[in-house]
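Q: Predict the assembly, please.
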Amino acid sequence: MIRYILKRAVSILLTFVTVSVIVFLMMHAVPGGPFDGNDMPVSKEVRDKLMASLGLDKPLYVQYFKYMWGVFHFDFGVPFQSPGETVLQLLARAWPPSLILGGLGVVIGATIGILLGIAAALRRNSWIDYIASTLATLGLTIPVFVISMMLILMFAVFLGWLPAKGWDKPNSWYLPIAAYAMIPMATYARYTRSAMLDVLNKPFVTVLRAKGLSERRIIFQHVLRNAALPMVAVFLPMFIGTATGSIFVEAMFRVPGLGAYFVSSITLRDYPLEMALILMITMMFCLAYLLTDIVYALLNPRIRFGGKS
Amino acid sequence: MMQTALELRNLSKTYHIRAGGGLFPAVNTLHAVRGVSLILPRNKILGLVGESGSGKSTTGLMALRLLEPTGGQILVGGADITGLDHKALKPFRRKMQVVFQDSYSALDPMMTLAQIVAEPLHIHGLGSAREQTDQALDWLVRVGLDRSYGSRYPHELSGGQRQRVAIARALILRPDVLVADEPTSALDVSVKAQIINLLQDLQAEMGLSILFISHDLSVVRSLTDSVAVMLAGRIVEQAPTEAIFADPQHIYTRSLLDAIPALNPKDRQRRSFISPAQIEAGTPRYSAAALGIPPSDVPGLVQVSPDHLVEAVVTP
Amino acid sequence: MTLPRPRRVALGAGTSQTPEIPLMRLLDIQNLTVSFSQHGGLVQAVRGMTLHIDQGESLGIIGESGSGKSVTCMAALRLLREPPARITADRMVLADVDVLKARGAELAQLRGKAAAMIFQDPMTAFDPSFTIGHQIVETILAHRSARKAEARSEALGLLARVEIKNPAAVLDSYPHQLSGGMLQRAMIAMALSCRPKILFADEPTTALDVTVQAQILQLIKDVQIEFGMGLVMVTHDLGVIAETVDRVLVMYGGRVMEQAPVQDLFDTPAHPYTVALLASIPGRTGGRRRLTEIPGASPNPANPPTGCPFHPRCPVAVARCSQDTPVLRSTAPGRDVACWRAE
Ligand SMILES: Nc1ncnc2c1ncn2[C@@H]1O[C@H](COP(=O)(O)OP(=O)(O)OP(=O)(O)O)[C@@H](O)[C@H]1O
Ligand SMILES: Nc1ncnc2c1ncn2[C@@H]1O[C@H](COP(=O)(O)OP(=O)(O)OP(=O)(O)O)[C@@H](O)[C@H]1O
Ligand SMILES: [Mg+2]
Ligand SMILES: [Mg+2]
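A: Predicted assembly structure:
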């Protein structure tokens, strides 16, 4: 088990380094640079000076190693678009709202989705099954900004219960979180239902009944445990989304999160911020997959103890 | 010289089993298969019988590279496939098919029987979708099911019906080598006869070679050319089928033949069973002089007559 | 690795009975039908089945693959999912409980304790996420208040009784770590763990070598005597039938063809299907050869033939056989046959 985790950790480190090289190269391969925009015309001389002061005149591999050296010392540089703070400071300021929005959204959405999925699987073709599958289909097909718009119209405009935008008052959190929760809810409801049905059709469930176990015990101990396996694989990667929030939800509700910076760092050629954001996402993904593998192995005796594949 | 379809050389499999919980549990080693060597000649059927848990399925799975051996070599038609990777193995996969002991888990519950049986054709891109389905339905008929079963799902079948679907699926590619693990255990005698006859026909018709793993000794007797007997991960006796049944040498083989249930209620009896200790003590002994080989007091496979191998001690 | 060989536990401690006590009827099924609705059709798996078993008695069910043997056992315990299954019967009483009327908790009490079942396919019968020990212990605890440790040591004893060589290791194994035959024995141990009054054994020894098979059959017979268990033995192995049961029921196409004491069935099979079945047993003598099969195809349960289900393959069929369905009638004490031609 420990060897397994170490092996995964090494492969993740490799992924991380590979991604950083590719991203770095691509970032610089795109024509243009931070001072080529039309809104701030500078002379070639000034531009060269600026480039030199930022170290952008050095060969690419030197820039890369310099940057990565910094990264390993938690120094991500200074964002071009707001030179008054470091990248880390910017993240510390803008990340928490995204994290809260995404984190609560996924947790709430997943909980409701799982419960709906279980109920739907246990009462197949009943009203709850229809409601669950309708909700799941709606959640996955209607774009997030439409859902956001409907929520705003309903609760902010017509009913006037909740504010339509902002993040400072606690009651301004409800609507964006609800909008964010839709996709995880729909995804989980569908996955849970089909994973449960899959297990319920297995012959061993009949054997459990034949032993005289109560239906409750069969469902909550055996069926859920086995259905959890395929669900884990979806669960953790989805959590990643939470790290970055949703650009759409944040824009619709004017949440001062990271969303906006994703767009601006790319359009403004803000290399340090762009790199930091991408590395951050890569890291989150890697961690999520590592965690997924570990949890999966813990739940699955076939991996935990080795055996026929 | 006879051509070999499949050869196993000194194949072994070891499992490490955690005993107890915690981060650093004790680990027990289990030798599921220890040094099995077998030759399956082309166009022949080799029976593999023996104690439950003696490593028959493990050997069969390793022979097809469906399970990684801990040691030893696997040769298919003379080519060593032990170290081949997934891609290099693909042309061999087509020629080697398997019927698993648990036929149920080998059948995808979401697919209809026609899809399940046609899938190997699909994987190897043989024929149009229509032809594939058509062939699949024909094979369902050959194993004694109706074409109408094509639209059914695995969970709607009886045990024997499912087993026949697994057999049809394994045969549809017309493989050279078939490893069949208890393929007839769930079949009534008439259907069993039908499947056995089908295997014999295919053998004659397309030169199929079969490693036939079974506990059913009467089927083994009427189907196979030779038999290997396994006990605790080793082969303890191997000989042409008639020699095994008419002249068993190893005490375990004899205890097996003695335990075949009587076919008449009149012959019911309370049996006495040979204990593992008695088997241990009953290892056959041969004198070195008679066999013309050097003596050895560790039991090993010795040739006691042409084609007849027995695990024995050779006394000086 | 050496392990202490655990003490053997007696299964039916204190349940010795005197022969004077009238035998209790454990299972009484009259005119059972089971059908499955299935995309636009109806699969008639069992079509009018009558059977009964008394305390201490053993009944063998043989017959074609797909003739409804497993479905009959599952229906008696109400283990089929309804729908798609539809079960009707004039009477279906298991250990004094009307199975057709029983619901949730009452059924759960019945299952495992009054009636246990050994399932046909041992390799899919266990939950892959839990150890064998866990699954046996939970069965014991579902029906008896005992401490976990007690249940565990009982499970250990049971595994030893089914001839498992290292019971302690098997107890802590996950299903995928065991061979087919080991799982089958573990399932037998699990079925016997609550000392059922009646045991449905659906192909209980298919994955066992003949030596272990003989030992297990002996164990089942011993247990039966130990506490007067009723036994329903479903198998294709006519040797197993000859060794273990008192009475045999022959099924074909969802119907009972014949019922007879075991010796009579082997000596003088009455139904043409039984005759053909016994004739296809592979011989015990040497040489590779073709085996005898019954010519023709099995009836399709989605579209069964009219009249006697066996008539299309029957060598002695007459015109009447394809029109009227023969009913099961008694030809001698203890013998019933459903055939127009049988005397
Ligand atoms: N994944 C695994 N982990 C640990 N042990 C295993 C694993 N798979 C098999 N074994 C062990 O290997 C041994 C051989 O198993 P195998 O399935 O090959 O037996 P078999 O001869 O096919 O028996 P049967 O006739 O009962 O099917 C058994 O003791 C079994 O417990
Ligand atoms: N869930 C189901 N849906 C539809 N048909 C089914 C279902 N279960 C069983 N059947 C059908 O019912 C018939 C009887 O099945 P059953 O499992 O009782 O056969 P069996 O006599 O036990 O055969 P075998 O010896 O092969 O195990 C078969 O034709 C089978 O295809
Ligand atoms: Mg096996
Ligand atoms: Mg069956």
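The pocket of adenosine-5'-triphosphate (ligand 2) is lined by residues B 155-161, 186; C 36, 38, 43, 45, 65-71, 84, 120, 301 (CB under 6 Å). The mean pLDDT of chain B is 86.
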